[in-house]
Amino acid sequence: MKHEKRILLDMIVIAASMGMTLFVCICTGVFIGHSLDGFLGTTPWGLIVFSLLGAVSGFWTLYKKAIVLMKDDKPSDKNDSGK
Questions:
Q1: How far is CA 15 from CA 11, 20, 64, 76, in A?
Q2: Which residues contact 47 (CB under 8 A, 6 or more apart)?
Q3: What pLDDT score was predicted for residue 76?
């Protein structure tokens, strides 16, 4: 039972980490775009472009994290070789 709770807690931490990663990437893009618009006077184009870049970078980071987690979940073939 303790092992199941540990697995559930690990899954919750991973999900929260991925959500926070996406949030931070999008907020960073919005902040950069808004600041650039104020400096260059290009409202709303900087905000639009950098918000989209932030979202794309956030999803790309989530994709990379998911690939790493999927590789960690696969059983290793070293144990199956019988050596």
A1: 6, 9, 14, 24
A2: 30, 33, 34, 37
A3: 60
pTM here? Answer: 0.79
CA–CA separation, 25 vs 35, rounded Å?
15
Domain limits, the chain: 15-70
List, for residues 55-72, the tens digit of each pLDDT value: 999 999 999 999 998 888
User: Could you tell me if 58 and 26 are in contact, meaning their C-beta atoms sit under 8 angstroms apart?
Assistant: yes
Q: Which of 54, 58, 59, 35 is nearest to 46 (CA)?
A: 35
Helix or strand (DSSP H, E) at 28: helix 2-40
Dist CA 47 CA 68 (whole Å): 31
Q: What is the pLDDT of residues 38-53, one digit of tens each?
A: 999 999 999 999 999 9
